[in-house]
Amino acid sequence: MKRLFLTLSLLFCCFLGLNAQKKQAVSVLFVGGSPEIETIGIGTPPDPAIVAKSAAERMAAFEKFLKKNFKTVKVVDAKDYHFSMSDYYDVTIIDGTPAEIAPGIRDVDEHGRMIRYARPQYFPLDFNRPVITIAEAGENMGRRIGTKNDWYCLCLEDLALGWNASHPIFQGPVKVKLETSMQPTPAAAAEIAEMMGEALPAETEMFLMQTINYTDKVKDNYTYRVGMVSRPGGYLDSPETEVITGGKCAKSIDAVAIGRHANWLTWGFAASPAYMTETAKALFVNAVVYMKQFAGQHPIARKFNDGVSTRDHIGMERNRMSRSMWEAYNEQNRQFNQLVDSLKTVIKDQKARGEKVDPNIAIYENFPAQKMVTYREFLLQQDRGKGLYAVFGTDEKAYQDYYDKNYGWFWCPEGSYELAIDDEVRYLGIPNNDIRILDKCISMLEKNDPEKDIAETILKRYTLCRFKTAKEWRDWYNRYHDKLFFTESGGYLWLVNTFENVPGNDYRVRLAEEEEAYMAMKRAGGRPGAPVQLTDDRNPVYLQVEAVKTEKGKDIVVFQKIHPGYHTYAVVPSDEVFVVTTVEIELPAGYEKVGPLYVPEAQLLDASGTTVYRGTGEFRQAVKGEGEGEATVTVTYQCCNNNTCLVPETKTFTVKL
Asked: Is there a single domain that holds both residue 158 and residue 33?
């Protein structure tokens, strides 16, 4: 009997021991507060009580999951979190928005145009504790301190693709069981590849990360959260980064769904553990364990300009001027026109039978035919104000040669989203990403070269050093030569591969110079006499609202001008997440709308049927009535270009009638 008792006791202890081993020896701080439902870019905001309930349920799901898998877990609401709390935990998971430590910046000029914008700051630049951010928290937490986990697109779905199977989070400590399948390659990814002159296979291997998608409805008819992918351009151009997996989304095939920038890991998938697959749960646990080792690190290359153009865009730039792209554009329009014609027939037949028309089809009832354009018209459309057509005309090869011959001289100036040629670098004849350019410029200073001003300009443009003498430059170059690397996404800079505080790695140098230049401009009252540009990269959409008299009454007119290279959305299929442009008009007593809202002519964006607004156009609503009063006009839109999508915006205007 004693032996049986002893045996049972040993078995019981072993059982407890096996259970205990399942919990990883990592202390975790979970910062919650975001809901399971989507709240960004939707027409009518959810009821606050519904959001609060959803957030509580999501936090509870994370708490249960984390406590099952880790020995030490602390769960706090984001409003109660401060970055200093992370010092007491191995890994912090951010799924909410904490109190800011510095406010956002939104300065406009006298014309209402944005001249300076920055998101709020939640962490200091030198923050070095391991963090995992969920979905758009990567952008929200990291933008002000320059992480590469930025907002390429809030459009990540439920499937992972393009993963690095040898990465540690696929190896353990929790076993990862992958059940993959071949899925149709996302249409957007295929089209972006075509723009680059590449081709993707019809199918791509993927595996499921969550049991829901953002197109799925939850209680009260809201949809689930949308995941976020980060820009791949320049993500890997510094040594403290790695891409772990991509995901099915509305952007390029290499968009980053899970990636690490030093001590910051973005987990772009949006679902809580309540909706994660077993594969995703195992990967998440392994990711937490993996991130523990990066305590003490911080980003070396800082991506403060989220829309910076990197040289991998050149393939797209050169290819979009080709005749093959022109032919593909017209063929796409031709096929779309055939589809719209067939839908118009369906609508006509349904109406004739007295049937209700599907809203997703009804939008095409009066849709104008897409225009077939000449190669000249296509090139002018693609030129985006660069002036290349004025030089090269319809000479296809000349465009290719322009990008090929100038490849080494391209850079993206501070505050710009477009590639430009650096004339000083081209003059010296050494590419800006070739370390010989630094040696050449330092040698010019040492020799007191007559053109040493060019050398000083280049050294200050492509480094964060501000030395006074040639000897200081040479000593720095010799000391760190073997550790120097060039980052484009980090601001087209030569940096030192170290987490130590060394000369050449302090971005506060550039931030201080930008602040000084900005304040000097403010003190001078802006740029007196300079022409006012209605749009630019900071202000890609200009809106003006007015009431104009007509023979029958008045029209409320919303004038829209979109910056070259950008677009807003006219029609979006139900399985896409982009925000359609809407114009809502509230009239005062005594006035009513007459007829429908007329909208600008839209252009086909891709094979999915998405159509967009480009250039200038008007939304026009006829109204009639008597007396004085003001109409309230609310315009909601999302602006994108081929490289990035901006956060949806809503602008409200009042107009006297």
From this structure: yes
DSSP string, 323-349: HHHHHHHHHHHHHHHHHHHHHHHHHHH
Distances, alpha carbon 487 to alpha carbons 502, 505, 549, in Å: 17, 12, 55
CB atoms within 10 A of CB 116: 16
Distance CA 58, CA 272 (A): 6
Q: Are 443 and 581 members of one domain?
A: no
Instruction: Check if the beta carbon of residue 618 is closer than 8 Å to that of residue 558.
Output: yes
Residue 348 sits in the same domain as residue 427 = no
> Do the strands 603-604 and 554-562 form a parallel or antiparallel pair, or are they unpaired?
unpaired
Number of domains in the chain: 4
Q: Extract the tokens encoding 448.
A: 């007191």
Place of tokens 């791949």: 232
Q: Which of 247, 238, 250, 239 is nearest to 266 (CA)?
A: 247
Which tokens belong to 325? 């792209």
Spatial separation of the C-alpha atoms in residues 377 and 380, rounded to whole Å: 5
Summarize the confidence of residues 491-511 as an average pLDDT. Answer: 96
Amino acid at 142: G
The DSSP call for residue 173 is S
- Residue 29 is classified by DSSP as E
| Residue 311, amino acid | R
d(CA 313, CA 301): 19
> Are both 486 and 349 inside the same structural domain?
no
Rounded alpha-carbon distances, angstroms, from residue 351 to 338, 363, 368: 20, 14, 20
Last residue of a domain, one of 365, 387, 404: 404
Instruction: Determine the residue type at 121.
Output: Q
How far is residue 14 from each of residues 6, 9, 20, 22, 628, measured CA to CA in Å? 12, 9, 10, 13, 84
420 and 395 in a single domain? The answer is: no
Average of per-residue pLDDT across 317-327: 91
Q: Give the per-residue pLDDT at 359.
A: 74
Alpha carbons 293 and 276: distance in angstroms, whole number: 25
Question: Phi first, then psi: what are they for 223, rounded to 5°?
Answer: -105, 165
For the record, the structure tokens of 500 come out as: 């130590």
Residues 330, 398, single domain; the answer is yes
Domain carrying residue 442: 412-498+500-523
pTM: 0.86
- Please tell me the predicted confidence (pLDDT) of residue 532: 61
Of the two residues 115 and 619, the one the predictor is more confident about is 619
